[in-house]
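Email to the structure team, subject: RagB/SusD family nutrient uptake outer membrane protein model.

Hi all, the expression group asked for a predicted structure before they design truncation constructs. Nothing fancy, just the tokens so they can compare against earlier work. One-line instruction: predict RagB/SusD family nutrient uptake outer membrane protein, return tokens.
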Amino acid sequence: MKYKIISAVGLMLTILFNISSCKKYLDIKPDKSLVVPSSLNDLQAMLDDAMTMNLLWPIGGEVYSDNYYITDSDWKSIQQIDRLMYIFDKEASYSGDWFLTYRIILNTNLVLETLEKIEDRDTDRKKKIKASALFYRSMAHYILLQEFSLGYTISSKNGDEPGIPLKLNSDINSESTRSTIKDCYSTILDDLQNALPDLPSEVPYKTRPSKSAGYALLARIYLSIGNYKEAGKYASLCMNQGLNILDYNLINSDAPFERYNSEVIFHITGNYNTLLDPTVSKVDTNLLSLYPPGDLRRRLFFSQNIDSTWSFRGNYDGSASVQMFCGLAADEVYLIQAECLAREGQDNDALAVLNTFLKMRYDSSFTPRTASSGNLLTLILNERIKELLFRGVRWGDIRRLNLDGDNIVVQRKIQGKEYLLNHNDLRYALQIPIDVLAQSHIQKNRR
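Reply from the structure team: attached below.
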């Protein structure tokens, strides 16, 4: 299956690639007079522009996570912004993560507004287009919130801290201000709940959102804010749609994972980043030690370099891509369901879900986990580390688990100096990009 990059006679490429600086609307100002979408085909083409909507999602959270390290020599050779990001510089952030994601949001707002003006009797198609746009807007706001605002759970008391600017229209003259974190989550969940009834059960491309994708995203978001009851509910609804877990016994270890494989629910990738490039990032041996004999992920996820270090190769984007898959997949949904069941005290059901999943990750030596296998929640959380690395998921886990009292510390060591990101550090909200701060009245993150 190929990416569905549809130009529609240059419809949105003309708009979105002629972006000029603007203090308002987050420094994104398209010339909307160049092309005016006038049909449902035009609007679908805007959502099907994979270069804008699927391939360049934020990566800063994964850069700050604890899945990898780099060598002193590589650190010296990379560009300055990557060096600063790697050591958690208090003012560093990626402008591209901000601008490219708000470009997605702008695209969705143009679709939603234009949809209201188009007279077309195909109401079912109109509903599906609206639902897809709301899904994208929800996911884009959510990932921005994960990167540029502090962590939040329903049991924490920081809901009134600054979130991100919520952009719910395409007015380039509206002043951008930061909503509270709590209001941001409320809007994100509202968009997704409004989208859910009209998302299609089947899609021709995995780069289009489906009903399963809606359930999976709701499960991820509710998990990230510690609402385990709702997260488990939507994980269950997603599983009831019919999910497939790849049997790793049948995967060719000499080839990369297939793009759009049967486990993928919704496909997006992160923007390219040097720090996460497998030729630069190294996997720590402490992480490798989590994979016992018989765990097939050890050979499918990692490759040994000439210098005896290890690199990650288990990217679900397939081929030789250096862009990280950060979409939605069945393995994540199974692990959300298992964790939520365990947190609700339903240990037997949690073990059943966990074992159904793990059976597909081990060779014939696999022994099902039981109540005597150790702390169940710890087992499940370790499986999240082992399964979802380099997916853009670990950052959210660190943030919510620290708010639950886990005190995870992310560490870097460069040229003999240690850099720490402690559990209560304000740098868990990356700084608003300097060029945004310079050209707007958006509030800076506290340090």
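Confidence is low (pLDDT under 50) at residues 5-25, 29-34. Residues 407 and 423 are 5 Å apart (CA to CA). Ping us if the truncation boundaries need rechecking.
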